[in-house]
Amino acid sequence: MARGTPLAALSCLIFLNCLKPLISWPANDKDAPDMSQPDYDQYLGDYLKPGDTLALLLDYDGTLAELTSHPNLTQMSDEMRESLRNIANSGKAFVAVISGRDVDGVKEKIGIDSMIYSGNHGLEVLYPNGTRHNQGIPKDVADNFDKMIDHLNREVVHHGSWVENKRVSITFHFREAEQKYVPEMAARAKEIIESYGYRANPAHASVEGKPPIQWNKGLAAEYILGSSFDPNWRTRKVLFAGDDTTDEDVMKMIKGTGRSFRVTKDKDLVTNADYKIPSVDAVYHLLKWIESRVA
């Protein structure tokens, strides 16, 4: 697998995207089956044949590991890790995890050296050979980062909420806060984040603070696929699974060429995914199905 391309190649990729927009289909809820008992032979059997070369992209929290009250408590099961390792080492699969965590943190959680890791929703990429690519952040915005965290800690961190420092982005968590405080603290956190020039986005029981650059998990996935998997990756087999709103950008990006799964128990959730699956356990069975195809 190739190393990451230099910044010039990335700029070219973004320029080409401007000329030819990414595939973007309307979000669908009725068209995405609720796979409470996933039958992967039925939904993927005609798409991924035994022996096909595959690109597998995955989220981490809520997809490969159960969500917990604190990110440090999140653990991937040994069975999930073993199946993922077998896929990554099969010689027939390219595997990358694109997470909201910082890149070193998600690699430490998974611990498989033969994969690509992308952190901070795609702002950081870490390759198996140690090469890194970091998306540029304007200096004046980066200089506000510590001030933003200090302000959040002073004003909105209370009653069980806290700020996760991910070096280039932050997450204001309120999963453990008393519900009566959540609307006001979340709204104020959004105001503070935006006052320092960062973008504020809602996530699972949290508000994400990201640099104001046109980048997301979908663009990161396209960059990784084009530079490391295959320049003609749209003609190849691509699968993605994720559980959060930030994962929808990947689902939109591969719509019509790849296959995607939204991990959710919400039958009414509007999603760009091709299929809904209900749990991390269902993701494990998806990996076992893929393993049987590429092993």
UniProtKB/TrEMBL annotation:
Stated family: Belongs to the trehalose phosphatase family.
NCBIfam families per UniProt: HAD-SF-IIB, T6PP
Pathway involvement of the protein, from the record: Glycan biosynthesis; trehalose biosynthesis
Any one Gene Ontology BP term: trehalose biosynthetic process
Known function: Removes the phosphate from trehalose 6-phosphate to produce free trehalose.
A matching Pfam family: Trehalose_PPase
Reactions mediated catalytically: alpha,alpha-trehalose 6-phosphate + H2O = alpha,alpha-trehalose + phosphate
Protein name listed in UniProt: Trehalose 6-phosphate phosphatase
Cofactor requirements of the protein: a divalent metal cation
GO molecular function annotation: trehalose-phosphatase activity
Keywords recorded for this protein, A-Z: Hydrolase
PANTHER family, A to Z: TREHALOSE 6-PHOSPHATE PHOSPHATASE
Enzyme Commission no: 3.1.3.12
Originating organism: Anopheles stephensi
Lineage of origin: Eukaryota, Metazoa, Ecdysozoa, Arthropoda, Hexapoda
